[in-house]
Amino acid sequence: MITDPLTSDDHLEIGAIVGDFTQRVFSSDRVREAAAGAPGFDELAWKQMVELGWSGLGVPAVAGGAELGVFVQCIVHRELGARLAPSPYLATAAFAATALDELADPELSGGLLAAIAGEPTLLALVLGHGRGWSSAPSPLVTATRSGAGWVLDGAVPLVPDAARAQRLIVVAAIDERNWGLFRVDAKGVSHPVRTVDSTRAFGDLLLRETPAVALHRETFDRARIDGLVDRLAVFLAAEMVGAAIACLNQTLDYLRTRRQFGRPIGSFQALKHRCADLAVGLTTAQELVFAAAETADTGDAAALALFAPLALARAGEVLKRTSEEGIQLHGGVGFTDEFDIGRYYKRALADLEILSGPATAYARMDAVRRGWPA
Amino acid sequence: MNATLLDHHVLGPALPRAPYDHPFRAEFRAWLREHATGEPEPLDQDARFEFRRRWHHTMAGGGWTGLHWPVEYGGRGADPVLQFMYYEELALARAPEPVNTPGLILLGPTLMAHGSDLLKRAFLPGILSGGQMWCQGFSEPDSGSDLASLRTRAELDGDDWVVTGQKTWTTFGQYADFCFVLARTEPGSARHHGLSMLICSLDQPNVTVHPIQQISGDAEFCEIFFEGARVPRDWVLGEAGQGWQVAMTLFQFERGDQGYTDHARLLVRLLDCERVLGEAGDLPPERVRAAREELRRLWVRCQELRLLNYRGTLLAAAGRSLGAVGSMTNLVWGELEKDLGSLQAEVAGARGLVLGRADTHHRLASRAASIYSGTSEIQRNIISERLLGLPR
Ligand SMILES: Cc1cc2nc3c(=O)[nH]c(=O)nc-3n(C[C@H](O)[C@H](O)[C@H](O)COP(=O)(O)OP(=O)(O)OC[C@H]3O[C@@H](n4cnc5c(N)ncnc54)[C@H](O)[C@@H]3O)c2cc1C
Q: A138: which DSSP letter?
């Protein structure tokens, strides 16, 4: 298969362990079963992942996490993506944990981070400014002081895993320039939405004077939110390339075995060349994702501000393309629910919406480049 | 002298293992600031070759050639990551393109892998200094993509091989002192068997070199006729009869060396397009808008190529083989080079038709990028069969 950006012995070993586990736990049958019951959730698997310490990979050591960094965590995301795992890992261990680590005051958020690392906690992150790097015309969620505390108001459509989360971590506008990070109880404010992708538990959010606890000590500006999205994008992009790799592999297996005109269809050059192009796109997208991950770990925020949107845009385009081609190259069976290939397409559609699609990522890229000296 | 060096930002985001504050970059930039001129390459082909040759001598004088060649062969034995940064810095200095690439990038490294001590001693110093120029004699009129069908033959006569046949598309054959020739040395052998890679001096009466006119207006590639040309018996690279394996080693360098697939030079040319678009020219606004969109797509593709070159570098640094990454790099570069050539002429509007302009010339010249060193179609065959395991 395509070149693996994991090269060190440590990383390869982690990759093998994670691959083993996900293959066992997220078999196609089990994924279908879990997703059919309650979208986006395999409770037992989540408990096991927490016990293995994976939910705390990115959590600081002081909060009881492993603090192994973004690159290592992306190894897990890639494997989860490959299996289309119905797991709260992205929403909780990546999105919520990163927001808490980046924007919250450690004294106020330490308990939450410790819970992510140590218990099968379920959190979801609500971005109240808009989707991904894009801005809604006016903030989607606003925060107002109420007595000693705060209340939040607003509506946010299709928040990943909000339908299952116990608590929500919310980025909300305090005034024109200042933003804060808040915690609210999910009960009564998030409403499950059934989407094409049953492996992710999307929820619509409706906040009406919902009591909230502030997790920030200092407010922050819009640029900090973009910096947060940079980090979130890398995790999501890793899931997308993982899904695309598995999708291409399934397609290649089919091309090697299905025969028409007395030969394997994979021997037709028209199909070979399409697969070659998919493999090239996938290779470069994966390189971008892991370059972004490594950059996040070195702390070069300026470089990350470009690598992250590049990785998200290209991973999204590549996953969509690969899954569309996957259906076409399977012929009629590709259109059946029985075959898994169509599930990659549905996952692609959902993943492309989580942080908004390539168009907003490229806009971020342009904006960052415009800020550079010529 | 005293070139202005472009800022690192032109290259895109800093790569974790080739950071912009690396001391090697600073050291090389200091030298480039003194010695590079940033002068554009002449359009006249002979003048251009001379221009590149002179630059090569300047670099050799400063000890800046063969950076990653082992010290015993006159190089610096540098880490491949330094070589990656080296090419990037050369592009930012708008330095001339490398000369004698068939020697420097193809034959030199292949000699180090397969050559006898005699051949290494005889030829490596001349390659590095630029004292001897080389060309690649693989393709024939009836054997291009299907190289293994080649018919040029060589037979032993006393202490010499006697070479008979025709090679074609031989780039810079007219400037070369030597040609490495893939020839059939076992009579009756077929396909990949019985071939040998011979080193043939072009300075002998039984060799004729004819330049061929190209669509770009240049005549860089040539046909070469070997009519009983003589090659000393031990000027064979590797074992006689093992020429195909030696050629495969050479292809690894041809398809993955950044000197051929440089992202940095493309990024500098993109910057130039951006500047032209920023000036109030007479290009209609619709075309300006379309060009800006294309520019952004090409910038993203340049970043992808950059990461492929980076991956190739890291594999080399780890002592691992490039494998099909080389074919990917070659494919991505070739298609990108053509699209960039088109964009450069597009931003000039109708003036991109006028002869004697660099953009006019480059657009035409770029059409070869997906043909030489293995066509895009052949690279896709290699990727799908060797890497993806699809049946033949
Ligand atoms: C500018 C330039 C410089 C060159 N320099 C050198 C040099 O220095 N030394 C040297 O030895 N050679 C050189 N070449 C030759 C080059 O390597 C060949 O042109 C190339 O390998 C293609 O061979 P061909 O021209 O015979 O085309 P063909 O092989 O006849 O190909 C014609 C078309 O058919 C396609 N095709 C062929 N086979 C297949 C297949 N199996 N599947 C799908 N499509 C296929 C090709 O992709 C191409 O589009 C140079 C070429 C150019 C253009």
A: S
Q: Which tokens hold the place of A137?
A: 């015309």
Atom 12 of ligand 1, nearest CA residue: B139
Residue with CA closest to ligand 1 atom 51: B372
Domain housing A134: 123-214
Last residue of a domain, one of A214, A238, A268: A214
What is the interface pTM, i.e. ipTM, of the complex? 0.96
Rounded CA gap, A265 and B390, in Å?
9
Alpha-carbon distance B189 to A263, whole Å? 30
A1 domain-assigned: no
% of chain A at pLDDT higher than 90: 94
Residue (of B204, B243, B195, B241) closest to B226 by Cα position: B204
Do the Cβ atoms of A279 and B318 come within 8 Å? no
Q: Are B224 and B302 in the same domain?
A: no
Q: Which residues of chain B neighbour A3 with C-beta distances below 8 Å?
A: 311, 315, 323-325
A118-165 pLDDT per residue, tens? 999 999 999 999 999 998 999 999 999 999 999 999 999 999 999 999
Judge whether A118 and A93 are in contact, CB under 8 Å.
no
User: What are the structure tokens assigned to A47, written together?
Assistant: 């408990």
Residues in B closer than 8 angstroms to A366, CB to CB, are 296
Are residues B72 and B38 in contact, defined by beta-carbon separation less than 8 angstroms? no
Ligand 1 centroid distance, CA of B318 (Å): 32
Report the separation in Å between the CA atom of B368 and the middle of ligand 1, taken as the mean of its atom positions: 9
Same-domain status, A250 and A351: yes
Split into its structural domains, chain A has a count of: 3
Answer yes or no: are the C-beta atoms of A199 and A35 closer than 8 Å. yes
Q: How far apart are CA A291 and CA A160, in angstroms?
A: 25
Identify whether the C-beta of residue B99 lies closer than 8 Å to the C-beta of residue B55. yes
**Does B63 map to a domain?**
yes
A151 vs A347: CA distance, rounded Å? 34
Q: Is B337 a catalytic residue?
A: no
Task: Clarify whether residues A277 and A357 are in a common domain.
Answer: yes
pLDDT of residue B1: 52
Q: Using DSSP, state whether B152 is helix, strand or coil.
A: coil
Task: Give Cα separations from B38 to A96, B6, B32 (angstroms).
Answer: 50, 10, 10
CATH classification at residue B230: 2.40.110.10
Within a domain: A22: yes
